[in-house]
Predict the structure.
Amino acid sequence: MTWVGVGAIWYYMAPSANVGAVLPDAHVGEENHTPDGFTTMNDARYSLAHIYASCRYRGGRLTREIAFQVLYPFASRDEARARWAYLRFHGVEPNLSSPRGLDEKLCWLKVHDRRPLLTRMSCKLEAREVVRERGFGHLLKELYNSWERAEDIEFDTLPDQFALKATHGANMNYFHLGDRAPDRDAIIAMARRWLKMNHASHYGEWGYRNIKPRLLAEELLPLTTSLGLPELRVGCSGGEPRFIRRLSGFSGTIPQQVSVRPKGLHLDLDWNPLPFHYKTRESAELPARPGYLDELRAAARALSHDMPVVRVDFSDSGGRLYFGELTLYPFGGLNPWDPPETDLILGDMVDVPDPASLR
């Protein structure tokens, strides 16, 4: 780190950012003894929050990189991002020497789990092969084609309705409902932006780091209700399903590029409501028990085999179950549980493996 870099950090630490918006729960002067031998104060975290806020509004990517080098000089770029994301969300450094809560163990896995299997499972295209290999290929939606360049999308070969997705991250989906001709230039421009992104850069989610960026077009499932398609997200640990989060509340007229906040309900494996939820829009209405519940549990168990933590996502269309994706770091490893002690309860269900077994 040069003196120029140090001077830049000093400048960006100047009290100009809205720190309270970044760490609203911090209390000045309260000590926190971290497990790695460091002692920090919340007023120091306030300064770190200044750096983060400045990264967003002043210097962009370069400033973030400088900040990460100063804050975590001996960490890899993904470890630095994972630690910083946890610090921002929880207000304390993660205890990576002896992690306890689910989020802390997810942070540990971001740092230590480097198996090639993670790349396969995180890639939307290669995950389909994992599903087939584990005996649940019949749950896959029809794949129309895949491309490495946005300019190569063969619109003339696609049906009136289709879903276009990037294979290497989240929130890169386009759903064409067939109500008008696709705007090819706009779709190609959007897909180009997707292909330049690396989702691992957000929160240190290593599983996304080495995915080859591609595009895929697949079957768009028909909407069967005015609320859209229910989603079922099965939280698994140690190769066992632990709970189901059922999502509903999609608009019946889905916008062309979907970005929604549906309502959710956490259920046990027998379809009974659980006493915890996310600090987001939650539903108190219990839907009827689906006929595919046994298959849902069996598929989640098979697809989570050999994984300390994974969320297995499905969709329900007309009472039939479809595979969605595998999510290795639910909510980016920053789960907004209510009540907060849910994080520790679920963390107790996760066994931290020997790091040597994860290389």
In short: The chain has eleven helices and 13 strands. Residues 3-112 form one domain. The CA atoms of residues 11 and 51 lie 9 Å apart. Residues 42-71 form the longest helix (30 residues).
